[in-house]
UniProtKB/TrEMBL annotation:
<dbReference type="InterPro" id="IPR050266">
    <property type="entry name" value="AB_hydrolase_sf"/>
</dbReference>
<dbReference type="GO" id="GO:0016787">
    <property type="term" value="F:hydrolase activity"/>
</dbReference>
<protein>
    <submittedName>
        <fullName>Alpha/beta fold hydrolase</fullName>
    </submittedName>
</protein>
<keyword id="KW-0378">Hydrolase</keyword>
<dbReference type="InterPro" id="IPR029058">
    <property type="entry name" value="AB_hydrolase_fold"/>
</dbReference>
<feature type="domain" description="AB hydrolase-1">
    <location>
        <begin position="23"/>
        <end position="252"/>
    </location>
</feature>
<dbReference type="Pfam" id="PF00561">
    <property type="entry name" value="Abhydrolase_1"/>
</dbReference>
<dbReference type="InterPro" id="IPR000639">
    <property type="entry name" value="Epox_hydrolase-like"/>
</dbReference>
<dbReference type="InterPro" id="IPR000073">
    <property type="entry name" value="AB_hydrolase_1"/>
</dbReference>
């Protein structure tokens, strides 16, 4: 199912599993699209969950809108999508930038978030150096396209041993990245440079909003130590370290990732 509504909203999305079941909203990172969640959508739908996997604005089949997209814009898009689908509350999961968007959704629309699944992400605000890097990268993507950047970072998105050892996964991630519209990626980079501090959001999570933190054992962008720090902030968080994976454990080790996710969902209050 691909519900469509509104210019700029998360209007292109896959909707798997039985209606009326526990809803799980999965938010992709940069520079990917909703297909990154295919292994998770299949497993969760088979287990009886309803899975919503949208393309964020400017990614996948969703067109770019404007020169800057704040994480707040993405979060409001997702809130509109959930309400459009008649979903009052959902488990919200995101990888990398998608995890930051999940935290922004909890900040701006707390009643929509039943639980959080934060994968290979960081709650800290952008540094001044980081702001400059993201703005320059935005200009580079517009000038060069996505392929040079993709080839430069593929062995950071996936653990280097998986780039060679899992050629199908590497090809899938590479294709996703290269297919991204540079205008959408640049707009997101400019917006992400302005991201706030989400650590207070984690620290304020009540017991009735559980949190699962997942991280690839060999993630160089958001290492295990950062995931541990997130769990220390969130009083009721659980940590799952996925062995044999880098920044995208849901792609690199889908069975282990899905097992940790399903175990978390099974014990939600």
């Amino acid at each position: 199912m691909n519900p469509q509504f509104g210019n700029g909203a998360a209007s292109i999305s896959d909707d798997f599993g039985p209606r009326g079941a526990e809803a799980v909203l999965l938010v992709h990172g940069h520079p990917f699209n909703r297909s990154i969640w295919a292994p998770q959508a299949t497993a969760l739908a088979a287990a009886g969950y309803r899975v919503i996997a949208p393309d964020l604005r400017g990614y996948g089949e969703n067109p770019a809108v404007g020169e800057r997209t704040l994480l707040a814009d993405f979060a409001d898009d997702l809130a509109a999508l959930l309400r459009h689908l008649g979903i009052e509350r959902a488990v919200v999961g995101g990888v990398s930038m998608g995890g930051q968007i999940a935290l922004e959704l909890r900040l701006r629309h707390p009643g929509l978030v039943r639980a959080l699944v934060l994968c290979d992400t960081s709650p800290v605000p952008e540094t001044e150096d980081g702001k400059e890097f993201r703005r320059k990268l935005a200009e580079r993507l517009l000038a060069e396209g996505m392929r040079p950047y993709t080839e430069e970072v593929i062995d950071k998105m996936l653990a280097p041993y998986n780039v060679t050892g899992q050629p199908e996964a590497a090809a899938r991630v590479t294709a996703m990245m290269c297919a991204t519209d540079p205008r959408g990626a640049a707009a997101a980079l400019r917006g992400r440079a302005e991201r706030p501090d989400y650590r207070p959001v984690l620290a304020a999570l009540p017991e009735e909003v559980p949190c699962l933190v997942l991280v690839g054992e060999d993630d160089v962008y958001t290492p295990v130590a950062e995931a541990e720090a997130m769990c220390a902030l969130a009083p009721h968080a659980r940590l799952a370290v996925i062995e044999g994976a880098g920044h995208l454990p849901g792609v690199e080790q889908p069975e282990a990732f899905n097992r940790a996710l399903l175990e978390f969902l099974a014990v939600l209050p």
